[in-house]
């Protein structure tokens, strides 16, 4: 009996290292999940802000050009060109209005974002304007109003 008890203690000591490895693994997985959720939340907020800033820029450009064409009577050499530009700008505004303003669990909005970017490129090409955007880096709350060039 005493020999069997010694054998069990010896087995427990041998398994002690593997037991600590398993406990450490479980702790590491739990901590990794928790820190991953926080990191994902922060990254999601940053990317969401960047995308909304980009969509807002496209919307502002489309509104400005539509106002110039309609209100100010800006005309291209060919009347058909004016109509095409207006059609493309209105189409861009419609695509922007479809873009979700709340958190999305699916990735379908990425396809819509690609379509908006493509439509914006078509519009700038038809208008003959430079197809670039630059935003002032936001470093504080006072810098929230970005500058588009």
UniProtKB/TrEMBL annotation:
<protein>
    <recommendedName>
        <fullName>Essential protein Yae1 N-terminal domain-containing protein</fullName>
    </recommendedName>
</protein>
<dbReference type="InterPro" id="IPR052436">
    <property type="entry name" value="LTO1_adapter"/>
</dbReference>
<feature type="domain" description="Essential protein Yae1 N-terminal">
    <location>
        <begin position="26"/>
        <end position="62"/>
    </location>
</feature>
<comment type="similarity">
    <text>Belongs to the LTO1 family.</text>
</comment>
<dbReference type="InterPro" id="IPR019191">
    <property type="entry name" value="Essential_protein_Yae1_N"/>
</dbReference>
<dbReference type="Pfam" id="PF09811">
    <property type="entry name" value="Yae1_N"/>
</dbReference>
């Amino acid at each position: 009996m005493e020999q069997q008890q010694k054998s069990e203690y010896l087995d427990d000591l041998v398994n002690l290292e593997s037991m600590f490895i398993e406990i450490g693994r479980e702790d590491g997985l739990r901590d990794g999940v928790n820190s991953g959720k926080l990191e994902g939340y922060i990254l999601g907020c940053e990317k969401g802000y960047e995308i909304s800033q980009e969509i807002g820029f496209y919307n502002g450009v489309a509104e400005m050009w539509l106002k110039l064409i309609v209100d100010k009577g800006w005309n291209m050499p060919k009347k058909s060109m004016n109509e095409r530009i207006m059609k493309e700008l209105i189409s861009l505004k419609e695509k922007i209005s479809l873009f979700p303003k709340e958190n999305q669990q699916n990735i379908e909005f990425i396809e819509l974002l690609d379509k908006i970017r493509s439509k914006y490129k078509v519009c700038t090409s038809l208008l003959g304007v430079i197809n670039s955007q630059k935003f002032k880096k936001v470093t504080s709350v006072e810098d929230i109003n970005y500058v588009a060039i």
